[in-house]
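About this split. The held-out portion is used to measure sequence recovery: a designer receives only the structure tokens and must propose an amino acid at every position. Recovery is the fraction of positions where the proposal matches the reference. Here is one held-out target exactly as it appears in the evaluation file.
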């Protein structure tokens, strides 16, 4: 049984006072979280504030990235141990915006994934095809290549704590979602790949999220699909009302 996971990726949004205001409102709208795990993922500089605000609540904390070394002369970077220290349990690895704007390759992502697992963080590994690749009919091949390359440095036991997010690049922040069938096809394939690479038990236990223009109107439909175990939410996680509706999606859906 995989506990559904909904993660709020705030990207480069929300100052500390804005985070404060958001969380006060959200906790009124969703005071207790049952049957779903929810992670708030603010910018690095808001992590301590959000850690403090979520301390005695059901909300968990995550970061948007990390660097793979433990410490050293890496100006501007943040290590897995630093994230743990501030209270993070989760970390996004390989988001398509990092691949696009910061040149992250599968090779770098593999190192970050291994560092996160080594430090005891739960990585949310993002993979997904771009529009050209989907139109060219190579979506599943792209997912296979990304997953194989990103998992190459991790051991089986460590991998069991990982979350995978299927995020078609053309659906991120565009208002164009994958259909439920497109998402399910990709996510079922990811589970099959996990089985092939890491074994049945790990594949069945790994949560696979969908990300790409998730809203209060489409979340229940996605959650109804057998291989969709939650969502990575960008835009709709910035308003307490819409994010609370997503968290409180119709559980009868699954
Ligand atoms: C994301 O940032 O991972 C994302 C899916 O964004 P959005 O929900 O805005 O498409």
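Reference sequence for scoring:
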């Amino acid at each position: 049984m995989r506990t559904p996971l909904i993660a709020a990726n705030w990207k480069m949004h929300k100052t500390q006072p804005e985070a404060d205001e958001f969380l006060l409102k959200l906790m009124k709208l969703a005071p207790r979280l049952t049957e779903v795990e929810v992670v708030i993922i603010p910018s690095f500089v808001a992590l301590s504030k959000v850690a403090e605000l979520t301390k005695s609540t059901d909300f968990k904390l995550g970061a948007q990235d990390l660097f793979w070394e433990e410490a050293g002369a890496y100006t501007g970077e943040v290590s897995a141990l630093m994230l743990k220290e501030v209270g993070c349990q989760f970390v996004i690895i390989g988001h398509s915006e990092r691949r696009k704007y910061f040149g992250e390759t599968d090779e770098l992502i593999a190192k970050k994934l291994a560092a996160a697992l080594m430090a005891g963080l739960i990585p949310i590994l993002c993979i997904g095809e771009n529009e050209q690749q989907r139109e060219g009919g190579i979506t599943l091949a792209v997912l296979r290549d990304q997953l194989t390359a990103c998992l190459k440095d991790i051991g089986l036991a460590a991998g069991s704590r990982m979350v995978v997010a299927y995020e078609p690049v053309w659906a991120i922040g565009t208002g164009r979602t994958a259909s439920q069938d497109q998402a399910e096809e990709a996510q079922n394939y990811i589970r099959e790949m996990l089985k092939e690479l890491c074994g049945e038990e790990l594949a069945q236990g790994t949560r696979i999220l969908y990300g790409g223009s998730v809203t209060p109107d489409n979340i229940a439909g996605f959650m109804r699909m057998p291989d969709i175990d939650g969502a990575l939410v960008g835009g709709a996680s910035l308003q307490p009302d819409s994010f609370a509706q997503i968290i409180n999606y119709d559980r009868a859906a699954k």
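Annotator remark: The first strand starts at residue 5 and ends at 9.
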